[in-house]
Amino acid sequence: MQDSRQLKRERFSPVTYCLLGAALFLTMVLCICVGSVRITFSDTVTAVWNAVWGLPIPENIAKNIILNVRLPRVLCVALAGAALSICGAAMQGLLRNPLADGSTMGVSSGAALGAVIAMATGFTLPGTSYGGIMVTAMAFAFGSLVLILSLAYMLDRSLSTSSIILIGVIFTMFISSIISLVITFSSDHTRSLNFWTLGSFSGVNYSQVKLLGLALLVCGGVLYRFSPELNAFAIGEDNARHIGVNVKRVKLVILITVSVLIGVCVSISGTISFVGLVMPHIARMLVGPNHRRLLPASLFSGAIFLLLADLTARTILSPIELSIGVVTSIVGAVAFVVIFCKTRKAG
Amino acid sequence: MIQMLQGNQVTVRYGSHAVVDGLSFHLKEGQWLMLVGPNGAGKTTLIETIAQGTSYSGRILWKGRDIRTLKSSELAQKIGVLSQRNNVGYAYTVEEVVGLGRYAYQSGLFSAKDDDGKAQIEKALEMTGLGELRHASMLTLSGGEVQRAFLAQVFAQNPQVLILDEPANHLDLKYQQHIFSLIRQWLKEPGRAVLSVVHDLGLARRYGTHAILMDHGKSVLQGTVDEVMAPDILQQVYEMDVYEWMREMLAQWQ
User: Confidence class of residue A1 from pLDDT cuts 50, 70 and 90?
Assistant: First the structure.
């Protein structure tokens, strides 16, 4: 006899990976095609294909727009979306908090402050143009995470959902004003407050794609490796300890990994809110809470979501380009309320 | 009989208040040691302390070796803990929760093959009567079913010592009887022991072999169940005539 409560949850099979991969590919092509200059599907595919294999590209194709403007941007957006989403999924599991995310917890703002300070003080790592900003952003992301969690722990030992978010929100507001102050007094105005608080991908190039790709590969790999531990934490930290998880060490590794990934994302594209909040939830509806499936599903869905958000930001008021955060925040704020109500109801 | 767990002068402080105050105990093979005492006696804290969940002074030994020197996974292979509060936030299936009981056997950078795992999980599901609910979401279970799922996780962990905080929590009478008999059965295998907090003194007397009576973080008396759970001793600690109360309750049925 089958109980009516049985979940019909299929395995996250290779077929699912293929479908998600195909959806991601099509979204990327769509994002390259659509814009102020329209490009046909076949031109896009031909240009990218030929460029990859080093073949000559026909004259009639808008090679420069495809390869030097839109492709790096699309790749960057997809990688950042995947990275933010996977970070959100990991934090929601680790803290057993369905509202956790780089932006709701203030980690992204912390990273942005780090980046702004590095730019204002001209701090660089020798041999890199971008290293100083990135490393400072990572360090500040980690610092914020530790600070917020300790504050929340002081207020409420059970680390309840709402107290973390409350502190995250206040922290974000506080940091935004500091960022604004630093920018006002800094001589470097290449990036505005708007960039740091709402995010943008305009003008990204392949070196940033490589950085993001590398960060996602390494950090994503680490997080995926820790799937069983994340499952244990998602069920409960005490339970995790009882089944033999080295709670302190695993927590530290995951928090550092998440900080590094968010730090890289923020230093490239500013803070983009809510991607890491919304997409893991959608992924969880599709494949369930098991991180072995949830992390890959979040990765794909985050990439697709951010691509569509960027496309909307670029095209909806063309020729004006909106900040990408405007789009994600509108979607995200609504989702936040829905999720909050649902968790309240569940107690 | 082999000494399995031993505590020497274990003290846990929250601020200046000692929740567990210089408590010493030992648990030998084959024993079912009941921790009894009124609310706030420090029973749950003692259990969390043995599970390395709080910082403490004094020493806890596993077969003579300081428990702090054991790796998390080694500890989990020896001691299985069922805690009192187990609510799940996400829609994990029963099988996923029970399967995590095998974590200690699979950890390490290159996950060792856990050949025994599947059989242990199956056995645990069957023992707790959850076979048919294996694919059900934890969020749809009743309190008793959740309790059984976590108990199954502990069984899947295949430890040598079970530490149970209120195992009868949320269980109806049928499952109380079922689970307690099950644990007694489990205990019959050599090299095993149980330590549990049980509020129901009737259950404690019926199933326990030994008991520690705790009050205000201290051990009032330790010994066999018959020695510790005598009416006059319980009366002092609980500040009421426990035996008379139990009799009154039973008299309702006559």
Answer: very low
Q: What residues of chain A lie within 8 A of the CB of B89, using their CB?
A: 96, 98, 234-236, 346
Strands B161-165, B57-62: pairing is: unpaired
Check B135 against A7: CB less than 8 A apart.
yes
Contacts of residue B4, defined as CB under 8 A and 6 or more positions apart, other chains included, come to B27, B28, B29, B62, B63, B160, B161, B193
C-alpha A33/C-alpha A31 separation (Å) is: 5
Q: Classify residue A68 by its DSSP letter.
A: I
Using an 8 Å CB-CB cutoff, list residues of chain A that contact chain B.
Answer: 1-3, 5-7, 9, 93, 96, 98, 228, 231-232, 234-236, 238-239, 241-247, 284, 288-290, 346
Q: Which of A110, A91, A76, A314 is nearest to A213 (CA)?
A: A76
Query: What percent of chain A shows pLDDT beyond 90?
Result: 49
- Please, which residues have CB within 8 angstroms of residue B9's CB and are 6 or more apart in sequence? B22, B23, B24, B57, B58, B59
Q: How far is A339 from chain B (nearest CA, A)?
A: 13
d(CA A160, CA A195): 32
ipTM (interface pTM): 0.90
For A307-327, write each residue's pLDDT tens digit.
Answer: 999 999 999 988 888 889 999
Contacts of A172 (CB under 8 A, 6+ apart): A103, A106, A109
The DSSP symbol for A289 reads: S
Of A1, A228, A242, the CB nearest to B76: A242
Of B83, B88, B107, the CB nearest to A244: B107
Q: Kindly report the pTM of this predicted structure.
A: 0.90
Report the residue from A6, A93, A238 with minimal CB separation from B136: A6
Which residue out of B81, B82, B90, B109 would a mutagenesis test of the A interface target, given it has the greatest number of A Cβ atoms within 10 Å? B90
